[in-house]
Write a structure and sequence with these properties.
- The complex is a heterodimer of chains A (about 750) and B (about 300).
- Chain A has about 750 residues and is an alpha+beta fold.
- Chain A is built from 18 helices and 30 strands.
- Chain A is globular.
- Chain B is built from eleven helices and eleven strands.
- The longest helix of chain B has 14 residues.
- Classes of the chains: A alpha+beta (about 750), B alpha+beta (about 300).
Amino acid sequence: MSDFRFDTPAGPNPIDREQVVGQPFDRIDGPLKVTGRARYAYEYHEEVPNVAYGWMLGAGIGKGRVSAIDTHEAERAPGVLLVMTHLNAPRQGPLQADFAPQLTGPEVRFFDQAVALVIAESFEQARHAARLVRVSYDRQPGRFDLKAEQPHATKPQGDVDDKPDTAVGDFATGFAAAPVKIDVTYTTPDQSHTMMEPHATIARWDGGRLTVWTSNQMVHWAVRDLSGTLLIPPENIRVVSAFVGGGFGAKLWIQSDVVLAALGARAVGRPVKLALARPQIMNNTTRRAATIQRVRIGATPDGRIQAIAHETWSGNQPNRRPEEAANQTRLLYAGRDRMTATKVALLDLTVGSSMRAPGEAVGLLALEGAMDELAEKLGMDPVELRIRNDVQFDPEAGPSRPFSSRHLVECLRTGAERFGWSRRNPRPGQVREGPWLVGMGMAAAIRGNLVEPSRARVTLRPDGTLLVETQMTDIGTGSYTILAQTAAEMLGLPLNKVEVRLGDSRFPISSGSGGSFGANSSTAGLYAACQALRSQLAQKAGFNTGQAEFTEGQVRAGGRAVPLASLAGPAGVTAENGIEFADLEQKYAQASFGAHFCEAGVDLHTGEVRVRRMLTVAAAGRILNPKTARSQCLGGMAMGIGSALMEDAVVDTRLGCFVNHNMASYHVPVHADIPALEVIFVKELDDKSSPMKAKGVGELGICGVGASVANAVYNATGVRVRDYPLTLDKLLPGLPSLSPA
Amino acid sequence: MRPFTYQRANSPAEAAAAVARTPGAKFIAGGTNLLDLMKLEVETPQHLVDVNHLGLDQVQPTPERGLRIGALVRNTDLAADARVRRDYGVLSRALLSGASGQLRNKATTAGNLLQRTRCPYFYDVTKPCNKRTPGSGCAAIEGVSRDLAVLGGSEACIATYPSDMAVAMRALDATIETVDGAGAVRTIPIAELHRLPGDMPEVDTTLRSGEMITAVTLPPPIVGRHVYRKVRDRASYAFALVSIAAVLGDGHRRVAFGGLAPKPWRVEAAEAHRTAQEIADVALAGARPTRQNAFKLTLARRTLAAVVEA
């Protein structure tokens, strides 16, 4: 059966029943996780006995060449089985991914790039022997400072998701003529994903066949990139990624652990496990790139945007993606004259890549700060300014490209009412409670809705239970649960009759988890597979497929009811199908929307910021599971608070490395930083997005949150910090002086 | 981690003797700092003497109406001790502001005193650091120095001392009891335990080789308001940018600063002054900040005002 092609808006379908889908079920993998039985990549002890341990040795310089590498002493250290460097690494395919291949030559492109792999009988032996590898370097001057390289930035040459520059109308003229305007530059720092589970892999060869248990968001990409790197056919590679302890984009593509474990296991003839230590992750793996963003907005005195421009600069390795921080400005607000521009400078830091909501997460920190500044200049309420500039079509393309669904205004109004926005004093620095200056801020949220082809296999087993198999991953998001809900809804079964198996390349290729496309795409693929199974079962029951109703464990039509279990036969009935998406995303602009409201206190003496409460209202199509979706939003909000207040991978611009490369010094919020957070979902169905009528929600929570915090800090203090994060040292100079006692 | 040998000591004197006579030996108690540094090979002891089983885990009253805290009393237990909470609130609060619950469960009183700097360059063996590798240079002074010392540093090192507990103990004028390899016992005022880096930043304390801390003694309680105010980049689990341990009584006050220097920073002469501004003028005199950490001086002044004038 060929894949279901989604090329017209979805009509009524069994998902609309919402008997299982749309219900706030606990995650079905919860008991496995809280009892430690959910196994992560490093934990396949029974399947893979006799492992040897790998350790990655990273370069000690920021830029240059390995001039000599002496492995003599390391090779003779106790337990050492192998020391691999670029001098003895096997031939690998050309560039497949940011960190595949590995150990290909003496060039050091960034600090902590792998220069050697040590394999030993124990983890400790491998780690210690790596310190005995003597590496000499020819250091070269590197480019580590985005600000210094900004003048040399160019239009991106390499891999770009979207067009780097857009222009509609005549921005320069429109902006010049606008009665009220702002022209502000914001900066955001480098960030590291800081997921709980580090990058980790066990690799085992059985003859020419490779199995890797790894922590990865995109199983089929891992197979593809390993095949191209190791020069073996994809069918000889099995990738297992059944549970992932967080990814946030760090595990979209294979990183050094996967390639090094596979190379090492082949060389020593034994399975090898290799995890990156936390201090390695920040320099050896990908980062979210720092940005410099200039936002110019011109408006009429009544707050209608006439001209809007967003330019962004970031830095990366050659032919690597810029941080696409201007893209949301193409869609969020109306305005006749507009432009966006994206430039990238060469930097000798590790590869800048995707991190939760690449583009919007940092783009909105600038745009939504700028909107707050514009509102103040206009003397207008910030909520009202956004409502006034709402637009129901792609403002670059015009009315011919409407949004598939857009309920931003409803999010804004609902949020303002529920949060008590009317109590906000628009004059900054006026509200004081004891030592706290208190303020409120808000921001709009947008995250582009992406869809990816996805397949699944469903089997009705003889006992009447249903088995779902797909490569889809669950990176802590709830994939297991929403897939079970989808299958249960489609087949009319209770949730506990569905078993879901994920994250194995032996299963049908799925969307994987990334870009907020996973939930909608993978359930849509499963929907298609379930439709195929329904047809088979209806036929077996002697029903016309179109008339058969699947409910309460039965298939029914014409007054007759047949138990599903009776149709399974001794071998069960299996169907496999998938979904592919036609051009509805070209015809319709697609995005999820939201509004964030934040109340923050700033200590009058110290400048310490504490978020006191926060509300997010989101419109993201059908919410497949309000509980797991809410958790996604809460995580995004916490991460957004971190991006506003503390997350900062600090570059030593002389030595070329991220200095604070551990979780003690790279700060993400702890429990004490996160107050009561509230999430409200606006009721919305998007029939142009997929048969599930859902949209992406996993990243929406982080988009704009940080700006709402910064705007609240401004409202509290009157201090506008445009250089994220808003650490207290940046607030202190603007705080009221203390009168001497 | 470099391979090492290990022994469990049976008495403090035996432990001290073992460390004194074995080249490259170190004591290990909670291990919350030493093991991290060993994994990085910043610390490379050849021999570990485990002192966890020596007792030394009691908090007892002294004849002088003070408290004697065993070297191995865990931070959690010390913070929760009813006498500490009642009579030495500044110490309990300082302890609870440090690290995380898990770390405090493991960390000991003596180990906390002897933790090493968190300067990022000290932790990165690919970078020069005079404290880790004497003579290799200091990457921090011209580098990322936002968290580092504004007082008491030298041309060789501007590392800060990270303990919160010790700042409170400094305000309380605690004394340190030790035993050495020969079994000799001495006491050291906490003000003299930690040394400034000068041109020997690799030496953090005035302890002699093999000398082991056995207890910390607190003098009789000081009546007054006990405050520990820690200012940091997040609400918990972060080292101090500035902290202040203060005891504020009628006609007397004590003020010690953390986060500013290579040791708890207290200038007794400052304490006689009346206003926060005057105290700060004296206590912070001679500061030599970098461009990145000059804010700490402003922050210290403002925090002091909040503490003293509240």
